[in-house]
Amino acid sequence: MVPAHTNAVQMMITLKVIGVCFEVHDTWLKRGQVKKLEDKEKKAQLELELKYEEVDPSPMDIFHYAFCYVGVLTGPYYKYRVYCDMVQGDAVKNGVDCWKAMLNRIWVVPLYALAFLVSDYFFPLSFAESETIFRDYGFLYRLWYMTPVFFNFRMRIYAGFVLSECVCIMAGLGAYPSTSQPKPGRGPSDYQALEEGGHKEEKTEYNFETIHNIDEYGADFTPTVRAGMRCWNMTVQFWLASNVYKRLTFSRSLKEVLTMLASAYWHGVHSGYYLSMLTVPFILMVEDYYDKLVRRNMDETSQKAYDWFSWFVKMQNFSYMGMAFLLLRVDTTLYYWHSIGYLYHGLIIIMHCIAQYINLIFSKAAYKVKKGKGTAVIDDYTRIRVVKTRDAPAASKEIVSAPVNGKQETVASSQEDDKNK
Q1: Which segments of 250-299 does DSSP mark as H helices, in order?
Q2: What separation in angstroms does the CA of 299 have from each of 58, 296, 310?
Q3: How many helices and strands (H and E) does the chain possess?
């Protein structure tokens, strides 16, 4: 019998092996570009990037990187170049305080563990699979029960991810100068600051943002699914963005679908992963519609109210998708979703239709204005508007007042061709 944790090891090795292939590919690509470049400024910038990104691993190097005990079970993902920087130990030699950084991160773990134990005792996942919840409880209870189950899942994941970050911190993995603006999974992003910092004599301030894998507050309290996902498993999000999303040449929507498909396949072959992950692109599409059509046209107070409502819907969507992620099997997942009427799938469709209707109304209104008025140019200083209409070959002038509540009010007008009257 294969141990259960073997799957986790395979998942991390998959990320590392594919990731190092792309690192080698990008190294070769940039070396070729440097040889062809004639612009000195661009060439210097590319050479600086190569200095802190290029890799030349041997087969044995790749083996050691893939099976490095740091992050081998629960992550986080880190690039081969980040691994090499840890092996060289420059940060440790320069006096980075790993103990202090670890203690600042680990103190929340007992709280997450306690919250998980308490909530799992009262709201176990197994109850969602039992006949009791479908026989003795109603629609509203089953709809609500997804929330504490997803809370259990979050607390367990938060505790595990934070502990894995602490292991990396104690190993000195992912320690870079704060001035280099490290990003989760990637490492330093400001190479110029990294270059200049190496020549300074004063003590360097380090952080471990490179192996920062979970932003608990952001995952829980950002108002949209898109923002919440960016705070969840951030190093793997970087891997998906850099090795899948950005390398595709399709439309944004199709790239999101393919990225979520790659994420589901990476998690495993259980159908629940696909039911969960492939729901995400449709939610993102609806969120983007409402952000453009509704939120951006609101004042600050209305935007705050909108964000709170959006946050509530986001957490319910996460709980809904989380049931598929946890139940795993297609029959149990669809049975549970069916018992609540596939509510959030239906909500996605309804909200999308409403967004299309709003967009249609706005488009028709804009078209009527354009057809009726032609092209209008407003001079903010003279308040003179020159309008060319379909019915009048000659231009007309309108003197308009200052905007009132975002609208122009005409106070006087004259036609140039009236001069002959």
Answers
A1: 252-267, 271-277, 280-293
A2: 57, 8, 16
A3: 20, 6
CA 325 from chain centre, in angstroms, equals 18
Strand partners, 398: 385, 413
Instruction: Give the total residue count for the chain.
Output: 421
How far is it, in rounded angstroms, from Cα 245 to Cα 255? 6
Paired tokens of 257: 């679908």
Assign 406 a pLDDT band (cuts: 50, 70, 90).
very low
Closest CA to 213 of 236, 182, 243: 236
How far, CA to CA in Å, does 152 sit from each of 90, 336, 373, 407, 414? 39, 18, 59, 51, 71
Query: For the chain, how big is the Rg over CA atoms in Å?
Result: 28
E strand spans, 69-193: 176-177
Is residue 80 within 8 A of residue 65, CB to CB? The reply is yes
Whether 370 shows a pLDDT value over 70: the answer reads no
What is the tens place of the pLDDT at every residue in 185-230?
999 999 998 888 765 667 788 999 999 999 999 999 999 999 999 9
Dist. CA 232–CA 209, nearest whole Å: 14
The pLDDT of residue 167: 95
**Closest C-alpha to 163, from 118, 120, 100, 113:** 113
- DSSP assigned state of 282: H
Q: Which uninterrupted H or E stretch holds 350? A: helix 343-373
Instruction: Give the tokens for residue 273.
Output: 């992963």
Give pLDDT tens digits for 6-51: 888 999 999 999 999 999 999 999 999 998 888 888 899 999 999 9
- Give which of 82, 300, 113, 287 is closest to 175, Cα–Cα: 82
d(CA 254, CA 266): 18
The DSSP 8-state label assigned to residue 246 in this structure reads G
Supply the residues annotated as catalytic.
233, 267
* 28-42, 55-69, 124-138, range with the lowest pLDDT: 28-42
